[in-house]
Write a structure and sequence with these properties.
Rossmann fold; five-stranded mixed β-sheet; 3 domains; Tyrosyl-Transfer RNA Synthetase; 414 residues; single chain
Length: 414
């Protein structure tokens, strides 16, 4: 193992390193470091917001360091309230197991599995007694925890804070003690929890872990951090074309941030791109295409990225209908049929669900209100709509299907 490391390791895609000078000394020592990454298995799916930190872990692994992945099977039963205004529901052990399995399948799309050790919190907390918990809580004060931003806001606003929530930072901190972490990785919203880990290690006579914080990636809406609950995410398990299209949908002012945090394009080339953007000497669409191609290639392949690029150009830019458009036979969404006129009246929210273009009727109604639903090229403006068999249903720019109807079957439940 070499003690040398690239400058970009601690600079590019990094929000803060605590304490950077100590981190540099650790890296220069040549000693393989234990890199702690915990995850909350109440969220099984990984999106590009998570990938920012995972790419850093991979870079450290390539220098010979070891990742310790902590499955938060105990803390998931509490729910980390970071950035939340309400207490999260507790999970069952089976829910935690299923979510953890899904998470790890996606985790290892970025991080090297051969250099990763997976540990469950229950390995150490399963042996804890009430006396152990009380001993742990005695090391910190309520005042220290109320200094955490989300706790402080809720306390000032008169919102409830469960005692179990105050345990979350303690349990996460003890994870660092249990595995003797050298470095803990997390988003900037995890700063308080990671620092509690540093303090607890010192109290327990261990070397204090360094804290490596990465930025929170802004989602496709260009406003809020990427989140599944906000619908502004790009999942690592999404099909190539969906992933490509979502990257193409980001606002132009996010292009350089995404390049910096999610690709290996050299810094010098990024500087040239940024200058071209500022001088308006490059079409942002061209840079976005390169970005989308790069990201799809990372999670699928160059061939899949090429196909997605060609399909996007055909269907979105030239507005051609897909050659292999799926056909969906409907029944439940039909409210009335008129075989003589060859038309059907459908509930469009139910139609969107029945054709599997959306997950719920509520989502369908929102899309209609946003003007994102078309039938045969006409924007749908009402929940009930007339159509002819064989009509093309389109949601947004990338979701299509042809509607097939048995005119003699009668109406469904509507």
């Amino acid at each position: 193992m070499t003690a040398r490391f690239p400058d970009s390791l601690l600079k590019r895609g990094v929000a803060e390193v605590i304490i950077e000078q100590e981190m540099v000394k650790l890296l220069e020592s040549g000693r393989p470091l234990r890199l702690k990454q915990g995850f909350d298995p109440s969220r099984p799916d990984i999106h590009l917001g998570h990938v920012v930190g995972l790419r850093k872990l991979r870079q450290f692994q390539e220098l010979g360091h070891q990742v310790i992945l902590i499955v938060g099977d105990w803390t998931a039963q509490i729910g980390d309230p970071s950035g939340q205004s309400v207490t999260r529901p507790m999970l069952t052990a089976e829910e935690v197991r299923q979510n953890a399995e899904t998470y790890m399948q996606q985790f290892f799309k970025v991080v090297d599995k051969s250099r990763t050790e997976v540990r469950l919190q229950s390995e150490w907390f399963g042996q804890f007694t009430l006396a152990d918990i009380i001993k742990l809580t005695s090391k910190f004060t309520v005042a220290q925890f109320l200094a955490r931003e989300d706790f402080a806001k809720r306390y000032a606003g008169g919102q409830p804070i469960a005692i179990t929530e105050l345990l979350y930072p303690l349990l996460q901190a003890y994870d660092s003690v249990a595995i003797q972490a050298d470095v803990e990785f997390g988003g900037v919203d995890q700063k308080f929890n990671c620092l509690v880990g540093r303090e607890l290690q010192a109290m327990m006579g261990q070397r204090q872990q360094q804290v490596f914080l990465v930025p929170l990636l802004v989602g496709t809406d260009g406003v809020q951090k990427m989140s599944k609950s906000l619908g502004n995410y790009i999942g690592v398990d999404e099909p190539p074309y969906d992933m490509y299209g979502k990257v193409m949908s980001i606002p132009d002012d996010l292009i350089m941030l995404y390049f910096e945090l999610l690709t290996d394009v050299p810094d010098e080339e990024l500087a040239d791109m940024k200058q071209q953007m500022e001088e308006q000497s490059v079409n942002p669409m061209n840079l976005k295409k390169r970005l989308a191609f790069d990201i799809v290639t990372q999670f699928h392949s160059r061939d899949e990225a090429r196909k997605a690029e060609e399909r996007f150009a055909r269907e979105v830019q030239r507005k051609e209908l897909p050659a292999d458009m799926p056909e969906r036979k409907i029944k439940m969404a039909i409210k009335a049929t008129d075989p003589k006129k060859g038309i059907v009246v459908v509930s469009v929210p139910l139609l969107l669900v029945e054709t599997s273009l959306v997950g719920s009727a509520g989502e369908g109604r929102r899309l209609i209100a946003q003007g994102a639903v078309e039938i045969d090229g006409e924007r749908v403006t009402e929940n009930d709509w007339k159509l002819a068999p064989g009509a093309v249903l389109r949601v947004g720019k990338r979701r299509f299907c042809r509607i097939m109807v048995d005119m003699n079957a009668g109406s469904g439940k509507g």
